[in-house]
Amino acid sequence: MTRQWQLMRDAQTFLDASKLANDALIGIHFAEIARQKGQPLGKAQIDKIDKGIKLLDVMSQALEAREKQEAITPEALSVLYVLSQGRKVSSQVALKKMLKDSITELQDFKNGKLDEPEEAEEFLEIIANSTSEEASKATSKVHIFMAEAR
Amino acid sequence: MYLIDQKADDLLSKITFAQQVISEIQAPDEVLLSYTEPLQRWIAYLRSRVEQAKAEFALFAQASHFSQSGSIQESHERRLLAAILRDYEDIERRIRIGLDTFLPLIPVWNNQKQNPETKLHHELLKRFVSDVMQLGHVDGHIMTIVGESYACLPIEWEERKHVIFGTYSEIKNLHKAVLLAHEIGHVFYHKNEREISSDITPRVLRELSQSIPPNLDQNVFDQASFIWAQHWIPEFVADCFAVKTLGPAFLLQFMLIALNSQPNRIETTHPPSNLRIKFMTDTLQSLNLPNIDINNYQALWDSYANTVSAPNSIFVVDDQVTKTAYDCVNSTIIPTRIDEKWAEILDARKAIEKGEVPNQDLVPTICALAMDESGIDLTTINKELLKRYSSNSNVL
User: Which end of chain B is less crowded, N or C, counting CB atoms within 10 A of the terminal residue's CB?
Assistant: First the structure.
């Protein structure tokens, strides 16, 4: 496989991780606006928040799996990779804590025990932005080669 | 009308265009149909994504009283708008890599099937790829297109599809087709990815973690893990598939394209050539094919590689890690098929050395051509083979 198509495959993995984080953010922000207006959370918002919790949970399990030297999903591996680029999260200890706190925050937020899941939002923003940026780098290298092929 | 709604309409027009391109294909063949069916489902998914993004923006505009004549101050609303815009970016990128890279291949495929200049070679390549897939127990139809460097394009349309490319400038050198076995190896990898990811990858990453030098930054380790898991293991699997299916023919042709002044150069997307050659020769040695000395191939390579380059000692290519990768990849799921064809390849090789056209099947014949080191002119044999293997083509 040429480098170009390898990067495209990476782009697809990064996009999948980015979408999960971004969907969760959309759910969280809609829920925050609804709460401000005294409205209950809708099913679509709760589903999206649950997706965010699932993503963080998968990452948390990935860290544990890595410590135990077990299998890690491609999405989790790609998120850990982008987080490792440019030190977006200072250390593994900080990453673990951030994941744990974010999952708790999102669960509390969903259950109405917390008004704003600040740390979870910040963390999901980092994941969504950095994976999206990596996907962008990779897709920008895909050129249309059809003139040559014809 | 909101600007973002116009953007949504732009995306929908691209999606509608894709739908039209597919519906206008006249009499698609079996191979093309196997692509357009999942693509149509993917197009429906993209359309629903755009509709959903539009609906979410409408909800946002209503909740925030968004106006295009001013900006929003409220923090949650600002961040929600950013997330909605990011969702649009995601859809655009999926259109780019899922539609824009694939749609132009449809006319190319049809053209190469019918164009007098390409149809014979195209037919032969299709036949060769199909035979190698059958030999390697890889199911499904694959589009094989001439016009790019040897490559396997993976496309995610909920179900994963692949397109195999062959180089245009080498279209007449039939022996070069053996290089496609590596690309089919990528298809094999993707079809077995779950098993490989849960078996081979953790074992290699475990070895990698045990080889970490003192005080290595965790970030460097994460990057090395990603490189091995996402790139290098798939490349080794594809190489292993190629040599277990086509044997020394693939190795020799790979050496020709890999030979350069930096055989130990580390690239994130591919393992160093030196490592790959060692990996392939070790794999071939383990097959114990009769009447061939694999050591000669390794010695041939080393005479250049060891002369121009010193071995790497960096962590990512640690000896123990590469040995584990070799052991895992070589001892697992990849079927060995070369032994079924080896006698035929040797017979075909003898015929070629005499200047005769081999009467063996296409795969052993191409392998024999790829292994030919006699320097004789293969033009006549290539022409005869084209006639023979393309004569049943329904496009003739």
Answer: N
